[in-house]
């Protein structure tokens, strides 16, 4: 029986609260099987007084969206002096903002679909019809539209005709005032988990994602049976190696720590293109990280227990 006491933070007041609670529950069970004492807490007004009184050895953030991924909760744990598993608060912001992440990963030498970022008031000031025409002219069709921040594909959609762009913009702007418009790349969609160890970051087997609808949206992600997953992904050795290289490269370029999941797509020419990265990957029954861990012949609780020890050693 371990004498470690770990706090798992799950829930939060975001659109992804339910997913976070499911992730927290699964992680808690996995860690308890490792013999750790685990307490589940929400990120609310009771958290700081609890941390001051309980003084846990470490915390794990299983919050998705908003404060769990943008560095806010990480910063609070730093203020409280609680070691935590995951990326530092300042670096979380680099990956949370999708255009920033794409820029930094592209500068590191990796491919990513061409894109433009537009604020809601730009359409008002410049005229929506003319701007949409320029978007289609510059980037072509189809396009992927999504909020520049956020997760679980909330507010994201694919448009194949110019007539569909206004509706997709409305959907994206419902989750924020800035939208990322990027070229939609047809290909094999994959997710690659990266785990830090004593010898540096390593990539676990990639997960291939095949949604029934053709688009990996919120419903496809969290409704059992709507998406088929292949782990390891059905890639040739060269593409599989490139996917691992991209994920590790993104992990390093963005200053990520302990664990991350990179979403990418392998296009018709075999080029692996970066889409986005997640510093607090889902751990539900339909999440890709646990699939990668299992395909690697490892145990979820064992992986996270080792990362907890790393976090405690860092102080």
TrEMBL record:
Mg(2+) 2 binds at residues 276, 278. Pathway: Cell wall biogenesis; peptidoglycan biosynthesis. GO terms for biological process: cell wall organization; peptidoglycan biosynthetic process; regulation of cell shape. Pfam families: Dala_Dala_lig_C (PF07478). Residues 102-309 form the ATP-grasp domain. Belongs to the D-alanine--D-alanine ligase family. This is D-alanine--D-alanine ligase. It comes from Nakamurella panacisegetis. The lineage of its organism: Bacteria, Bacillati, Actinomycetota, Actinomycetes, Nakamurellales. The gene is ddl.
């Amino acid at each position: 029986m371990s004498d470690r006491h770990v706090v798992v933070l799950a829930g939060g007041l975001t659109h992804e609260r339910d997913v976070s609670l499911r992730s927290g529950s699964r992680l808690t069970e996995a860690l308890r099987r490792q013999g750790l004492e685990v307490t589940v807490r929400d990120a609310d007004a009771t958290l700081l007084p609890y941390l001051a009184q309980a003084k846990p050895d470490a915390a794990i953030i299983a919050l998705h969206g908003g404060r769990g991924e943008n560095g806010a909760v990480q910063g609070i744990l730093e203020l409280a002096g609680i070691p935590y598993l995951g990326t530092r608060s300042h670096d979380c912001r680099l990956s949370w903002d999708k255009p920033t992440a794409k820029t930094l990963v592209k500068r590191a030498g990796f491919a990513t679909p061409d894109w433009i970022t537009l604020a809601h008031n730009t359409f008002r000031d410049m005229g929506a019809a003319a701007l949409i025409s320029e978007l289609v002219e510059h980037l072509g069709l189809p396009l992927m539209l999504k909020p520049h921040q956020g997760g679980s594909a909330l507010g994201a959609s694919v448009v194949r005709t110019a007539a569909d762009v206004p509706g997709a913009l409305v959907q994206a702007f419902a989750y924020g005032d800035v939208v990322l418009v990027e070229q939609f790349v047809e290909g094999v969609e994959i997710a690659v988990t990266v785990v830090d160890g004593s010898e540096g970051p390593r990539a676990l087997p990639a997960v291939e994602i095949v949604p029934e609808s053709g688009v990996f949206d919120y419903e496809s992600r969290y409704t059992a049976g709507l998406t088929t997953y292949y782990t390891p992904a059905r890639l040739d050795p060269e593409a599989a190696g490139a996917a691992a290289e991209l994920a590790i490269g993104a992990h390093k370029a963005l200053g990520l720590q302990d664990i991350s999941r990179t979403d990418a797509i392998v296009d018709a020419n075999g080029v692996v293109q970066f889409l986005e990265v997640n510093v607090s990957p889902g751990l539900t029954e339909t999440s890709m990280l646990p699939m990668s861990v299992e395909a690697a012949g490892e145990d979820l609780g064992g992986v996270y227990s080792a990362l907890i020890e790393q976090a405690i050693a860092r102080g």
